[in-house]
Amino acid sequence: MSGSAKATxxxxxxxxxxxxxxxxxxxxxxxxxxxxxxxxxxxxxxxGTWYWNRYPEARFDSESYTYGFLFSKELWEEWEWSELFxxxxxxxxxxxxxxxxxxxxxxxxxxxxxxxxxxxxxxxxWTVRTGGGAEHRARYVVAATGVLSVPYYPAVEGRENFRxxxxxxxxxxxxxxxxxxxxxxLIGTGSSGVQIVPAIADDVASLTxxxxxxxxxxxxxxxxxxxxxxxxxxxxxxxxxxxxxTSPSGFLHELxxxxxxxxxxxxxxxxxxxMWNSPGFSKLTTNxxxxxxxxxxxxEFCEFVADKIRGLVTDPATAxxxxxxxxxxxxxxxxxxxxxxxxxxxxxxxxxxxEQTPIVRVTETGIELTDGLREFDxxxxxxxxDFGTGALNRxxxxxxxxxxxxxxxxxGPSTYLGIVTAGFPNFFFPGGPHGAxxxxxxxASDQVDCVIDVLEHAREYDYDVIEVDPAAEKDWxxxxxxxxxxxxxxxxxFGSNIPGKAVKQLLNPTGRPNLQRLIAEQAEQKYxxxxxxxxxxxxx
Length: 540
Ligand code: NAP
What we know:
18 helices; disordered N terminus; 2 domains; alpha/beta; binds NADP nicotinamide-adenine-dinucleotide phosphate; globular; FAD/NAD(P)-binding domain; single chain
């Protein structure tokens, strides 16, 4: 028995941690089903990752209307996304619109950081403590803390000594950063870094992009949504929702229809051109059927993209440095760009390969590389996140017998359907590790609905304690860890970017149809993968 958690505050049914895309949906659904709910959010506003990532040109690379909520036709009809891929300010406005429209804000406490969550076995409830010293009691805790919420700073010597300004993309300040006439260093060129480069290239005195590993960047192909398209979107809500609710990747993209081997080289090049001009992720989801299983066609696509880079970047030496050498397309999460390669043609932008001249240390005035010191006014760390488990492992979650979640997951996460883990009753984490492989909110909404269905089932049969059967968890986790993956083990999807972190699958490579099948099966089988009990039984 943990016994450490003293239950003192008013008891709510569901305490949600995080008011991002998953937390908002969990709040909406829980309230809709008659549960009392409270949400604790560290930020001063809603949006989660989209609240913190307010760096210049932060924007969706999932089509805007496929990322938003699908639970209300009225919402779909009232909100108009201005662009195919909306920018952060519009995304933040959307989340605010949603919480106000459905009067959700009254259940959200802002500026509150959770420091611990402990399960109390005699009562079957959780006590959640915050940095401000408050104590909240709940029957169920839903940690909707997201997968990209703990920024990662590499352990570069001297970072604290820098006298200029420093920012991480994942903790961008609300007051806009003034780049005018500044000497700026940008470290990291994943999806975040490559969005910033063209956004500030014209403002700065100089922008030095410090790149370790180039990625295969292809055009986002963004654009405004015309009034006619807006009308079509509204008219087709039911069809679109149905497609998004069943689509394997959570997108509306046309599915692949041909094997690369069915086409001649000329036809393949014409098809790649079509892919290059297609929006966002369709380069992956609509490409040849064998695109990710046949290295030959993937290599051919990479050669095609390399030629595009050579055509876009004037300086041949810079172009070569921007072409990935050690992975194929989608070996790492592909970024999508607007004007990124072209930015290197501007006199203000300089590319530095950290493979050739690694960082030695940060000094008071700049960054020392192996070939000398470069002075800067601003350093931008676009160096990524402790993906998947980062936030959950820092929440101070204590389950049965005081079991620490971070200890339980020391060798990587162990979950059932990416929703629950053994030893932590009445604790759920939709939208977390083992959750998605595609358009995140679509997978997360399957999981949010599953959480609500389990809670309703427990309520109907008067159970107090819900926990996953360790055998079911082992089965799912083994399947996840044993499934082939699109992404390389060296990518952050396996935690490889964080020194000392277990290298384990953090996505759900089994795919959405499998997740949905298992969720439906559980409902039919009255949650046979869960152990449901009443408090007296649980205590016994
Ligand atoms: P990321 O993809 O993990 O990229 C981090 C970058 O920092 C990499 O280029 C990495 O280089 C570099 N880096 C890390 N440690 C370094 C070190 N010690 N020295 C030099 N460079 C170092 O992070 P991100 O760009 O923030 O993107 C994370 C995820 O957020 C994306 O994959 C995506 O899922 C999401 N995102 C989405 C959008 C969108 O359009 N919707 C926008 C931004 C982000 P190495 O590769 O060599 O390690």
